[in-house]
Amino acid sequence: MTVTAKLLRLYLVDKQLRGLSSRLRASEAYLGEQDKLLSELDAKASTLVTQIRSLEATLKNDEVEVQSMDERAALLRERMNNAQTSKEHSAFLTEISTIKADKAPIEERMLVAMTKLDALRAEAEAIEAQKAERVGVRQVASNERDARAAEIKDRVDELKKQRDVAKEDVPPPALLIYEQRLALNVEYVMAAVEEQDRRNMEYTCTACYTHLPIEQVSVLLKRGDLTKCPTCSAILYIEDHLREDITGSDKKSRKRSAAAPASHDDFG
Ligand SMILES: [Zn+2]
């Protein structure tokens, strides 16, 4: 078995593994999305809680201030009622109206704050409802992910064993190149060589469609050394049917060559 053939055996197992886990990855991505949405809602909720607390504190201060103003006004009113002279009486009256005037903007401010607080509390409640709903969706997503994982577990375990066997066979330097490419998560870790025109020796890489130097195709056919596409770096291989086809016709052409020496040797 050539290095390329060994790599291809490993690649076919990896492709199955990847295919099997694609549904699992999709459900994992969906679950991740739910987690993200939930954490966004959490952040919104905690911002609202901070705003509500701060507004509640401001409102409490204003309440205390208004209360002390009311107490002071009540005290002044009492004194005013016991005033001995009209001058004294009007002095108390002036002071009471000053307190009233000072109180008005505070009460106005409190009203605005209370309206805002109501709105914030309603918003917080809505966020909590959204959170509860999202927690439900997340649970469904999580169950789905677990079900997918369980569904493919046996097959994945089996493929992993096959992978270990296939991997052991590959020479370490080739394996390193392969694993590096696998880690890139590209669509084509390996790519088949496609024949365009045998007579003109035109062969392309199935991953990037570019023409391959005939020397590379020749090396793959003869020795099966690790060969990368010069354009996209996919590890190239030749499918069995094409190899048989080429080598078959190569033999025929050799026979023809022997019969008619003028004809050139395709893969010499
Ligand atoms: Zn390519």
In short:
The protein has 268 residues and is mainly alpha-helical.
Write the SSE topology.
Layout: H1 3-81, H2 86-169, H3 172-183, E1 190-197, E2 202-205, H4 214-222, E3 235-237, H5 240-259
Parallel strand pairs: 1-3
Antiparallel strand pairs: 1-2
Helix pairs in contact: 1-2
Bound molecules: zinc ion.
| Span of the ends, CA to CA | 22 Å
pLDDT < 50 runs, ≥5 residues: 261-265
Largest sheet: 3 strands, mixed
Tally the helices: 5
Overall shape: it is rod-shaped
Ligands: zinc ion
Structural class: mainly alpha
Q: What portion of residues belong to β-strands?
A: 5-15%
Mean pLDDT: 92
Q: Compute the gyration radius: what is it?
A: 41 Å
Strand line-up in the sheet with most strands: 2-1-3
Q: Roughly what percent helix? A: over 70%
Describe, in plain words, how this protein is organized in 3D:
With about 270 residues, this protein is mainly alpha-helical. It is about 75% helix and about 5% strand. It has 5 helices and 3 strands, in the order αααββαβα. Strands 2-1-3 form a 3-stranded mixed sheet. β1 and β2 form a beta hairpin. The longest helix is centred in the middle third of the chain and has 84 residues, at about 85-170. Mean pLDDT is about 90; it is low at about 260-265. The structure holds zinc ion (ZN). Zinc ion binds near residues 191 and 210.
Label this structure with key terms.
binds zinc ion, rod-shaped, 76% helix, 5 helices, 3-stranded mixed β-sheet, mainly alpha, 268 residues
